[in-house]
Amino acid sequence: MWQAEQVTKQQIAFLRKLYLAHLIDDGQHNLLSLQKLTGMPRRTVQDALAACSDIGIQIAFVQDGVRNNSGYYHIQTWGPINSAWVGTHLSQIELLLQIPAAPSS
After folding, report:
1. Which own/partner contact pairs does 22-31 have at CB distance under 8 Å and 24+ positions apart?
2. CA gyration radius, the chain
3. Given a cut of 70, is residue 85 above it in pLDDT?
4. Is the pLDDT of residue 102 over 90?
5. Counting CB atoms within 10 angstroms of each CB, which of 40, 53, 83, 84 has the fewest?
6. Rounded distance between C-alpha atoms, residue 71 and residue 66, angstroms
7. Where are the alpha helices (H) located in the chain, listed in sequence order?
8. Is the separation of the CB atoms in 90 and 10 below 8 Å?
């Protein structure tokens, strides 16, 4: 895949979209849970989710409650992206994005 010292901003943005899509496809997540899992700022997560359609990934917000922000994101389609590839390379993606390790139980 990529070498950490050679990764461009555009590649990081692409990997961020893939990573968030993987998390959404793996469980019911809202903005807050994605922030906590990734350690990314709220605005970064929002911008990446909004830009996923640029690479063909269609994400919808499923309203699940009375409040406007009660609900979760759902992948409608991965488009041209192979979701299995993302799962296979997940540890490399996390390393390149500097995602904090999950706390041990």
Report:
1. 22/83, 22/86, 22/87, 22/90, 22/93, 24/59, 24/73, 24/74, 24/75, 25/75, 25/78, 25/83, 28/72, 28/73, 28/74, 29/72, 29/73, 30/69, 30/71, 30/72, 30/73, 31/69
2. 14
3. yes
4. no
5. 84
6. 9
7. 9-26, 31-38, 42-51, 83-88, 90-97
8. no
- Nearest-angstrom CA–CA distance, 83 and 17: 12
Q: Which of 12-21, 65-74, 92-101 has the lowest mean pLDDT?
A: 65-74
By the 8 A CB rule, do 38 and 20 touch? yes
Per-residue pLDDT tens over the stretch 21-68: 999 999 999 999 999 999 999 999 999 999 999 999 999 999 987 777
Domains of the chain: 9-97 (1.10.10.10)
pLDDT score of 105 more than 50: no
* Predicted model pTM: 0.89
Provide the residue count of the chain: 105
